[in-house]
Amino acid sequence: MDQNSSEILAKYLLQLQPLSKEELLDKIRGCIYGQALGDAIGIRTEFKKAEYSANVWNNTPLSLLNWNKKRKIPEGDWSDDTDQMIVILNSYLQSRGWNFQDFAAKLRDWRNKGFRELGDKSGFGCGQTVRRTMSHKEFLNNPHLAALDAWIGGKCNLAANGALMKSCILGIINYNDTEQVIRQTKDIGKCTHADPRSLSASIAQTVAISLMLQGLRDINTVIEASYELTSNFLQNYTNSLDSEVNSNCTPEKIAEYNEQKENFEERFNIELLRRYMNIDLPALLPIDGKDMGYAYICLGCAFHTLRQDNFEEAIREIIIQGGDADTNAAAGGALLGCKIGFSGLPQNLVQELLHKDWLEDKITQLINALGILID
């Protein structure tokens, strides 16, 4: 990692108050369950307008069950957001590291088959950017190139939320090495998303998770540190794009890329990142328009949720606004779940998760892989 990042991190590490083992396990489980719960609750108003969403949830207790609507997935299940997070986890558990080809192969396999042990016939719900990247002829061999080509083909403006929606697990793995967390979040994120905003949104989330798990307890300080480290990444990554494109892409793609460079300063401005990381929800609205899949909208929802204390109230506040409700609630649920721990989550909703036992087994495997002994 670059010197600036190390210097930024050093001043915050002095403020750590290490967690007990019980606190650490509680926060890890809270992060993962928080993602799954936010996802499973948010599906009900996914892609809906705010007015519709408010009518669904106003004066109605949050629940994953008893929805009077035909759905593509069973009651109590989560969506592709959490599925893809688990694909990342499976790749890590089987390799104890990061192999891009392995992750790409597992993601393709999930899209074709889903999780057969859960009765899936296929994975569904992939966003446009992920579909475009996975259809690239080089995806299995070089997913980073596939994502880069797809991004350039979208006029270097595919800043989708599909990297952020699955990234929380990358803040848990190697959580005690924040610089490694940044590297692995970038490397896995680049398998599907090349836009600096998509990657920065993911890194902001995983850095916050990493720091909370290390014992940075003041949430305003967590957000400040996450912004500083993420803005440093954003500048460095944006500056590296010319070299990456010129070294890997065809002359035609390079020409397409060069045509868009005049827009980069406005699109990849660190002050834009700061605004969305510190925005309150009313200032973010509306989030149910054509740009609902924008990574920074999800980022704003996630960090707004982190600043709250009550899980049900915070998730309700997000999902009644419609838009990409499951993704916004999943990203926010992961952050708030890490903050308050599994013990702070609504246990009635946890019990409604369809595949709770299967998810719990995955978490146990992760904890064992991290070397945390369970009493």
TrEMBL record:
Note accompanying the cofactor annotation: Binds 2 magnesium ions per subunit.
Top-rank taxon: Eukaryota
Cofactor: Mg(2+)
GO molecular function: metal ion binding
UniProt-listed Pfam families: ADP_ribosyl_GH (PF03747)
Organism whose genome encodes this protein: Blepharisma stoltei
Residue positions binding Mg(2+): S79, D80, D81, D324, D326, T327
Keyword terms of this UniProt record: Magnesium, Metal-binding
Protein name: ADP-ribosylglycohydrolase
InterPro entries according to UniProt: ADP-ribosylglycohydrolase, Ribosyl_crysJ1, Ribosyl_crysJ1_sf
